[in-house]
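Design job #97: recover the sequence.
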Protein backbone atom coordinates (compact mmCIF):
# COMPACT_ATOMS: atom_id res chain seq x y z
CA UNK A 1 0.00 0.00 0.00
CA UNK A 2 1.37 3.39 -1.04
CA UNK A 3 0.47 6.78 0.38
CA UNK A 4 -1.73 8.89 -1.87
CA UNK A 5 -0.45 12.45 -2.19
CA UNK A 6 -3.02 15.24 -2.41
CA UNK A 7 -0.94 16.99 -5.08
CA UNK A 8 -1.44 14.06 -7.45
CA UNK A 9 -5.17 14.15 -6.75
CA UNK A 10 -5.37 17.86 -7.54
CA UNK A 11 -3.41 17.45 -10.78
CA UNK A 12 -5.59 14.60 -11.99
CA UNK A 13 -8.90 16.17 -11.01
CA UNK A 14 -8.11 19.62 -12.41
CA UNK A 15 -7.11 18.10 -15.74
CA UNK A 16 -10.05 15.73 -16.08
CA UNK A 17 -12.76 17.98 -14.65
CA UNK A 18 -11.81 20.41 -17.41
CA UNK A 19 -12.52 17.63 -19.91
CA UNK A 20 -15.94 17.16 -18.29
CA UNK A 21 -16.73 20.87 -18.67
CA UNK A 22 -15.51 20.89 -22.28
CA UNK A 23 -17.67 17.91 -23.25
CA UNK A 24 -20.64 19.43 -21.44
CA UNK A 25 -20.14 22.62 -23.44
CA UNK A 26 -19.79 20.69 -26.69
CA UNK A 27 -23.17 19.04 -26.10
CA UNK A 28 -24.99 22.33 -25.79
CA UNK A 29 -23.08 23.87 -28.70
CA UNK A 30 -23.09 21.07 -31.24
CA UNK A 31 -25.19 18.06 -30.23
CA UNK A 32 -28.59 19.50 -29.39
CA UNK A 33 -31.23 18.78 -32.01
CA UNK A 34 -34.77 20.02 -31.32
CA UNK A 35 -36.57 17.19 -33.06
CA UNK A 36 -34.39 14.62 -31.36
CA UNK A 37 -35.05 15.88 -27.83
CA UNK A 38 -38.79 16.26 -28.58
CA UNK A 39 -38.87 12.55 -29.46
CA UNK A 40 -37.01 11.46 -26.32
CA UNK A 41 -38.91 13.24 -23.55
CA UNK A 42 -42.47 13.11 -22.22
CA UNK A 43 -44.74 15.87 -23.63
CA UNK A 44 -47.69 14.75 -21.50
CA UNK A 45 -45.74 15.74 -18.38
CA UNK A 46 -45.32 19.31 -19.59
CA UNK A 47 -49.00 19.55 -20.52
CA UNK A 48 -49.90 18.31 -17.04
CA UNK A 49 -47.71 21.08 -15.59
CA UNK A 50 -49.64 23.62 -17.70
CA UNK A 51 -46.61 24.87 -19.60
CA UNK A 52 -47.88 27.69 -21.80
CA UNK A 53 -44.91 29.29 -23.55
CA UNK A 54 -42.65 27.84 -26.21
CA UNK A 55 -39.55 28.95 -24.30
CA UNK A 56 -40.62 27.24 -21.06
CA UNK A 57 -41.43 24.04 -22.96
CA UNK A 58 -38.14 24.07 -24.88
CA UNK A 59 -36.19 24.80 -21.69
CA UNK A 60 -37.90 21.90 -19.92
CA UNK A 61 -37.11 19.47 -22.72
CA UNK A 62 -33.54 20.73 -23.07
CA UNK A 63 -32.82 20.63 -19.33
CA UNK A 64 -34.07 17.04 -19.07
CA UNK A 65 -31.91 16.05 -22.04
CA UNK A 66 -28.80 17.82 -20.74
CA UNK A 67 -29.18 16.41 -17.24
CA UNK A 68 -28.97 12.85 -18.54
CA UNK A 69 -25.90 13.75 -20.61
CA UNK A 70 -24.23 15.49 -17.68
CA UNK A 71 -24.83 12.53 -15.39
CA UNK A 72 -23.18 10.25 -17.94
CA UNK A 73 -20.21 12.58 -18.45
CA UNK A 74 -19.67 13.13 -14.74
CA UNK A 75 -20.08 9.41 -14.11
CA UNK A 76 -17.25 8.76 -16.56
CA UNK A 77 -15.09 11.32 -14.75
CA UNK A 78 -15.68 10.07 -11.22
CA UNK A 79 -15.27 6.42 -12.20
CA UNK A 80 -12.01 7.22 -13.96
CA UNK A 81 -10.82 9.07 -10.88
CA UNK A 82 -11.60 6.08 -8.66
CA UNK A 83 -9.48 3.85 -10.89
CA UNK A 84 -6.66 6.43 -10.80
CA UNK A 85 -6.46 6.69 -7.01
CA UNK A 86 -6.74 2.93 -6.50
CA UNK A 87 -3.89 2.43 -8.95
CA UNK A 88 -1.71 4.90 -7.05
CA UNK A 89 -2.32 3.16 -3.71
CA UNK A 90 -2.72 -0.52 -4.59
CA UNK A 91 -1.45 -0.80 -8.16
CA UNK A 92 -4.93 -1.45 -9.53
CA UNK A 93 -5.37 -2.26 -13.18
CA UNK A 94 -8.23 -1.67 -15.58
CA UNK A 95 -10.01 -4.99 -15.93
CA UNK A 96 -10.60 -6.70 -19.28
CA UNK A 97 -13.34 -8.89 -17.82
CA UNK A 98 -16.96 -8.24 -18.74
CA UNK A 99 -18.76 -6.03 -16.23
CA UNK A 100 -15.66 -5.32 -14.12
CA UNK A 101 -13.87 -1.96 -14.03
CA UNK A 102 -10.73 -2.71 -12.05
CA UNK A 103 -8.80 -5.42 -10.26
CA UNK A 104 -6.36 -5.07 -7.38
CA UNK A 105 -4.84 -7.01 -4.51
CA UNK A 106 -5.15 -6.00 -0.87
CA UNK A 107 -4.10 -8.04 2.17
CA UNK A 108 -3.56 -11.13 -0.02
CA UNK A 109 -7.12 -10.92 -1.40
CA UNK A 110 -7.93 -10.15 -5.02
CA UNK A 111 -10.77 -7.71 -5.56
CA UNK A 112 -12.84 -7.24 -8.69
CA UNK A 113 -14.70 -3.94 -8.68
CA UNK A 114 -17.54 -2.57 -10.74
CA UNK A 115 -17.85 1.19 -10.22
CA UNK A 116 -21.07 3.15 -10.37
CA UNK A 117 -21.49 6.87 -9.78
CA UNK A 118 -24.43 6.69 -7.36
CA UNK A 119 -25.81 4.10 -4.97
CA UNK A 120 -29.28 3.74 -6.54
CA UNK A 121 -28.16 2.85 -10.02
CA UNK A 122 -29.93 -0.27 -11.28
CA UNK A 123 -33.16 -2.19 -11.68
CA UNK A 124 -33.60 -5.89 -10.86
CA UNK A 125 -32.42 -7.13 -14.26
CA UNK A 126 -29.29 -4.96 -14.10
CA UNK A 127 -28.52 -6.23 -10.60
CA UNK A 128 -29.01 -9.80 -11.85
CA UNK A 129 -26.51 -9.17 -14.65
CA UNK A 130 -24.07 -7.68 -12.15
CA UNK A 131 -24.23 -10.90 -10.14
CA UNK A 132 -23.59 -12.96 -13.27
CA UNK A 133 -20.62 -10.80 -14.24
CA UNK A 134 -19.14 -11.02 -10.76
CA UNK A 135 -19.60 -14.80 -10.60
CA UNK A 136 -17.87 -15.26 -13.95
CA UNK A 137 -15.02 -12.88 -13.09
CA UNK A 138 -14.46 -14.50 -9.70
CA UNK A 139 -14.33 -17.97 -11.26
CA UNK A 140 -11.87 -16.93 -13.98
CA UNK A 141 -9.49 -15.10 -11.63
CA UNK A 142 -9.56 -17.80 -8.96
CA UNK A 143 -8.76 -20.46 -11.57
CA UNK A 144 -5.70 -18.46 -12.66
CA UNK A 145 -4.39 -17.37 -9.27
CA UNK A 146 -5.86 -19.82 -6.73
CA UNK A 147 -6.33 -16.82 -4.42
CA UNK A 148 -9.41 -15.61 -2.63
CA UNK A 149 -11.47 -13.30 -4.84
CA UNK A 150 -14.06 -10.84 -3.56
CA UNK A 151 -16.42 -8.85 -5.76
CA UNK A 152 -17.23 -5.24 -4.92
CA UNK A 153 -19.87 -2.91 -6.31
CA UNK A 154 -18.34 0.47 -5.53
CA UNK A 155 -20.59 3.55 -5.59
CA UNK A 156 -18.95 6.96 -5.58
CA UNK A 157 -21.63 8.67 -3.54
CA UNK A 158 -24.54 7.77 -1.29
CA UNK A 159 -25.11 5.26 1.49
CA UNK A 160 -26.29 1.66 1.75
CA UNK A 161 -27.02 0.17 5.16
CA UNK A 162 -26.32 -3.44 4.18
CA UNK A 163 -22.97 -4.03 2.49
CA UNK A 164 -23.25 -7.81 2.10
CA UNK A 165 -25.39 -8.52 -0.97
CA UNK A 166 -25.00 -12.30 -0.93
CA UNK A 167 -22.34 -12.88 -3.56
CA UNK A 168 -20.76 -9.46 -3.58
CA UNK A 169 -20.34 -6.42 -1.36
CA UNK A 170 -21.72 -2.96 -2.05
CA UNK A 171 -19.65 -0.08 -0.69
CA UNK A 172 -20.94 3.47 -1.07
CA UNK A 173 -19.61 6.96 -0.49
CA UNK A 174 -17.03 7.21 2.28
CA UNK A 175 -16.80 3.41 2.63
CA UNK A 176 -15.92 3.00 -1.03
CA UNK A 177 -13.29 5.76 -1.19
CA UNK A 178 -11.65 4.51 2.00
CA UNK A 179 -11.68 0.94 0.67
CA UNK A 180 -9.78 1.81 -2.54
CA UNK A 181 -7.36 4.33 -0.96
CA UNK A 182 -7.13 3.67 2.78
CA UNK A 183 -8.03 7.33 3.38
CA UNK A 184 -11.27 7.88 5.39
CA UNK A 185 -11.33 11.58 4.50
CA UNK A 186 -10.78 11.43 0.76
CA UNK A 187 -14.48 11.61 -0.05
CA UNK A 188 -14.50 15.11 1.44
CA UNK A 189 -11.06 16.21 0.25
CA UNK A 190 -11.95 15.79 -3.43
CA UNK A 191 -14.68 18.45 -3.22
CA UNK A 192 -12.27 21.37 -3.62
CA UNK A 193 -10.41 20.15 -6.73
CA UNK A 194 -13.70 19.08 -8.37
CA UNK A 195 -14.80 22.72 -8.11
CA UNK A 196 -11.71 23.87 -10.03
CA UNK A 197 -12.69 26.85 -12.21
CA UNK A 198 -16.35 25.79 -11.89
CA UNK A 199 -17.64 29.39 -11.85
CA UNK A 200 -15.66 30.33 -14.96
CA UNK A 201 -16.63 27.18 -16.84
CA UNK A 202 -20.28 27.49 -15.90
CA UNK A 203 -20.46 31.10 -17.11
CA UNK A 204 -19.13 29.96 -20.49
CA UNK A 205 -21.69 27.16 -20.54
CA UNK A 206 -24.58 29.48 -19.64
CA UNK A 207 -23.73 31.83 -22.49
CA UNK A 208 -23.99 29.00 -25.00
CA UNK A 209 -27.04 27.62 -23.19
CA UNK A 210 -28.92 30.92 -23.55
CA UNK A 211 -28.10 31.05 -27.22
CA UNK A 212 -29.36 27.53 -27.92
CA UNK A 213 -32.55 28.20 -25.91
CA UNK A 214 -33.30 31.17 -28.15
CA UNK A 215 -32.52 29.21 -31.32
CA UNK A 216 -34.62 26.20 -30.32
CA UNK A 217 -37.51 28.39 -29.16
CA UNK A 218 -37.64 30.05 -32.58
CA UNK A 219 -37.51 26.69 -34.34
CA UNK A 220 -40.17 25.22 -32.05
CA UNK A 221 -42.47 28.20 -32.58
CA UNK A 222 -42.21 27.81 -36.33
CA UNK A 223 -42.95 24.08 -36.27
CA UNK A 224 -45.25 23.49 -33.30
CA UNK A 225 -47.10 26.73 -32.59
CA UNK A 226 -50.31 28.04 -34.12
CA UNK A 227 -51.16 31.73 -33.76
CA UNK A 228 -48.70 32.04 -30.87
CA UNK A 229 -50.04 29.03 -28.94
CA UNK A 230 -48.44 25.62 -28.55
CA UNK A 231 -50.13 23.14 -30.86
CA UNK A 232 -50.18 20.23 -28.41
CA UNK A 233 -51.90 17.86 -30.82
CA UNK A 234 -49.17 18.40 -33.40
CA UNK A 235 -46.45 17.97 -30.78
CA UNK A 236 -47.96 14.76 -29.39
CA UNK A 237 -48.45 13.41 -32.90
CA UNK A 238 -44.79 14.07 -33.69
CA UNK A 239 -43.65 12.51 -30.42
CA UNK A 240 -45.91 9.45 -30.37
CA UNK A 241 -47.96 9.14 -33.55
CA UNK A 242 -47.67 6.36 -36.12
CA UNK A 243 -46.26 7.64 -39.37
CA UNK A 244 -47.38 6.26 -42.72
CA UNK A 245 -44.05 4.58 -43.24
CA UNK A 246 -44.40 2.86 -39.84
CA UNK A 247 -47.67 1.24 -40.97
CA UNK A 248 -46.12 -0.36 -44.02
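Job complete. Output follows.
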Amino acid sequence: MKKLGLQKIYEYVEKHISIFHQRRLEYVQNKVDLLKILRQKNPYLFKAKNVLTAQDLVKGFLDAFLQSQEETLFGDFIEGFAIFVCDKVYGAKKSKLTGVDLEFEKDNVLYVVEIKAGWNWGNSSQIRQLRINFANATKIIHAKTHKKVIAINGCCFGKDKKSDKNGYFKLCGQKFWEFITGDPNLYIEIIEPIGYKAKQKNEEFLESYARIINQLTLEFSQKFCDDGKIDWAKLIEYNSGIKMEDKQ
